Amino acid sequence: MSMLTALKQSVAATVFGCVIALSPATADAEPLRVAFGDIPSVETLHLLIAFERAKEAGLDLEVTYLKSEDIAAQAVVSGQADVGVGGPYALIQKVRAPVRMFMQLSTLQMYPVVAADTYKTWKDLDGKEVAVHSRGSGTEAIMRLAAEKNGIEYSNISYIPGSEVRTGALLQGNVKATIVDASGKRILEAQAPGKFLYLPLDDLAATDEGLFANTDYLKEHPQEVATLVEAILTTWREVAKDPAAVERLREKYKLLPDASPEMVAEIGPYFKEAAAGGLPLNGGGEEAVKDDFDFYTTSGALEGEASGLKVEDFWEFAPLKAALAKLGQS
């Protein structure tokens, strides 16, 4: 299990203890504060690289790693952070939180998985517990939508942030049904071939992770946000052309220093698959948001009809448009 625990155990004790370490905004001189509801891992390595590039471009940037997307979103809503990582559609609609999404980071490329000695099909999960990333996340939406389409109802949905953590829980036998990313799928197939089954899904095109910010911050700091967006777009485009660049850039910026050899070996295959699956090279846009509305209303994360939802109620495109004006469309 060293691949799954080496980084998690060394980092978790530090970052999980700093959940309330964020301080309220006090002055314009403060850095752009990012609340990240996860801990550093292979699946987020390209974003960590983009953060470093934003700093090189002159952006004063601080990243705080928190226990869940829920806590990260709360930090942004309360003003303890400026930018969050996640997909706060339900938060915006149901709580009317003063935040807006401004960039798509990834689309849903996930794999519902079950222990083969316990379950075989979606129907077998009727009345059973499943685990997802966090409340309101794309992983939860996928599992709820699958339940609806297959005419079943879970006994409970538990929240376990991090695909690698859920993968480890499967291998340890602590979880019998969950959803993992491509990296987790490869780990399961390599370490326990034949022990797990992957349940079928319809094609998905919705946002998995995005960036969102307090509306006041977006109005008052457009250049800072645009600089962050530029760094991410530049990194995504480089990874799409050459997935091996992630390994070189990890070395350059000394990222994931506690990663085990097995974890390091996973970087290349993970980003090769991510590039083949299609990274959002233009940060999303109105068409991407329409896909989100279709998916999240069908899954129940958003209320109402997709056609009745207004893009401007959930997204602010000014920073993305500014970055694309400089970098061009890909």
UniProtKB/TrEMBL annotation:
GO cellular component terms given for this protein: periplasmic space
Record's subcellular location: Periplasm
Signal peptide limits: 1-29
Domain SsuA/THI5-like: 55-244
InterPro entries (UniProt xref): SsuA/THI5 (IPR015168)
Keyword tags: Signal
UniProt similarity note: Belongs to the bacterial solute-binding protein SsuA/TauA family.
Record protein name field: Nitrate ABC transporter substrate-binding protein
